[in-house]
Specification:
disordered C terminus; about 25% helix; Aminopeptidase; single chain; alpha+beta
């Protein structure tokens, strides 16, 4: 069955996908589930932020956010790929690369020079074309490694292990959509968040 990327807030059957996210064994994933359930996702991450789901039929393979804000308390860095998670049974096949390519295409369409990722992992995001930038502290004072995915012409077939033709067709619909990413009606209501390490 073909894998498809969908956006949580523009898809049907949100209750089904919310339940699937709730099956995540990662505490940060459970926190994301809580934000969705309590309708606080956009208030915390930004009005234009998106939750991307990699699906296969009714199964959720992986998810991540394309967000204006992340756990690092700064308004200067944006956008972020956050809450990066792949369910255990799908790991080892670089499924997360499909979501990161989608994030890359969204950021490119929005005119950003790079995408930021905060993590406590070393040697994980390099294989997806990201480079370590520097260490920064989150809202709780913990050190996190900040990676950047530069927006340049990139052929992701070598990263994903295939030409990804069917994948590209599945994600084209969103690359031309929201190009006013930086406008956020909730700037004045910024809240601190706590998110643990990624688990692709």
């Amino acid at each position: 069955m073909e894998m498809t990327i969908i956006e949580y807030y523009s898809c049907q059957h949100q209750e089904h996908w919310l339940r699937e996210i709730g099956q995540c064994d990662w505490s940060a994933g459970q926190y994301l589930h809580q934000l969705l359930r309590e309708h606080r996702f956009h208030a915390l991450l930004g009005a234009k932020s998106r939750l991307l789901l990699l699906t296969e039929g009714d199964s959720l393979i992986a998810f991540c956010t394309y967000a204006q804000r992340d756990e690092i308390p700064t308004e200067e860095l944006t956008p972020w790929a956050g809450f990066v998670y792949t369910f255990p049974q799908y790991r080892g096949k670089r499924r997360m690369g499909k979501l990161l390519e989608h994030v890359y295409q969204l950021a490119k369409a929005d005119g950003f020079p790079c995408v930021y990722i905060s993590t406590d992992h070393t040697g994980l995001y390099e294989k997806y074309g990201c480079t370590f930038w520097k260490t920064m502290r989150n809202a709780q004072g913990d050190d996190y490694r900040i990676y950047r995915m530069e927006i340049v012409h990139r052929d992701y077939s070598s990263i994903l292990g295939s030409t990804g033709v069917e994948y590209r067709e599945a994600v084209e619909f969103s690359a031309e959509r929201d190009r006013s990413f930086l406008q956020d009606d909730n700037r004045g209501g910024k809240k601190q968040m706590k998110r643990e390490s990624v688990s692709p």
